[in-house]
Amino acid sequence: MTAEVAFVVDLATGSVEDLPQITFESVGLWERRDLQRWIAERPEIVEPGLLLVTSEFADWEHRQQRVADRLDLLFLDPTGSPLVAELKRDQASETVDLQALKYAAYCSTLTTEALVEQYAAFHDVDLEAASQTILHHAPALVEAERSPVRIRLVAGGFGPGVTSVVMWLRDRSEIDVGCIEVTARSRGDGTVIVAARQLIPLPQAEDYLVRRRQREEREEVRKRGSRGANSVGVLAEAGLLTTGTTLQLGVQALIGRWREPVAALLIEKPQVGEAEWTGESVARSLRWRHDGQVYSATGLTKEILALAGIDVSTSGLPGPDYWLLPDGRAMYRASVEVRGRNGV
């Protein structure tokens, strides 16, 4: 792959000046004092819509024993997912992925109450103010536990030993892990230009990976047989859906370009992402709290996307992939597990 080239153009003269890439170390910039501070102050370096919960978090216990590990930054996204950001000043070490997975495992035990407590302690506010901030940022936490932990590795560069593991985890598991490359370039006048870009997943590849994973899951069910042909029917028979059960829209299951506008819509109107199971036919299975009308899972998903200003002309939208049961599983994923247990 050709190395990235950057330069400055003087609009008056048309002259071009190269901007050579440098390391943070070479100009005296540090991981904790500088890179960590920049990202804490500007979370959009990692991802838009993040709320900083705490920094240098080390309040862990494992089997009633204190653990000394300390993660760099802990954020909360608008869907209620904690996001672990592990930082390296320049080239990421070959073990940074394992380190971040360990922190994510620790964070998977954090309750909403624990997140509120950590936010209050770090930002020096009382618990009531912290709770209001957390729940306003992620309204889904009002009635449900938080979503799965996400991971972002942030470094000046990543070797194949890291990127291959990250791609494998994204492709073969439900772990949302990615890489953000942060680089520095010298202007030669005592100033440095710092740039950040999402390396994994590539924005143009993310939609493809989501669709492929959904296709593979459907093929898995098809091979197991046709009994209980639809997801909602399987879940109702298993007793996982009863009349009045509250379902939440799983924003993270949506393809990448849809997430931000939908998350923004849910912050403004939380009830848009909530529905109740009616116990009626598949076509009338969900009652939308936003308007009180009934829809299929696919039909309601299309309504929400349209409300967020997203073109949903496609007819292949898999609604059950996007609605979460109270235990946090997508309807479709839960139906796959039920079929598996029943040997279908």
Walkthrough of the structure:
This protein has 344 residues and is of the alpha+beta class. It folds into two domains: 7-201, Trna Endonuclease, Chain: A, domain 1 (3-Layer(aba) Sandwich), CATH 3.40.1350; 206-341, no CATH class. The chain is 36% helix and 21% strand. It has ten helices and 16 strands. It has helices at 31-41, 96-107, 112-123, 127-137, 160-172, 203-224, 231-237, 256-268, 297-307, 331-341, and strands spanning 7-9, 16-18, 21-22, 51-57, 60-62, 65-67, 71-76, 82-87, 150-155, 177-186, 192-200, 246-249, 274-277, 286-288, 294-295, 323-324. Strands 3, 4, 7, 8, 9, 10 and 11 form a seven-stranded mixed sheet that branches. It has a five-stranded antiparallel sheet with strand order 15-14-13-12-16. A hairpin with a 5-residue loop joins strand 7 (71-76) and strand 8 (82-87). Helix 3 crosses helix 4. Mean pLDDT is 83; it is low at 223-229.
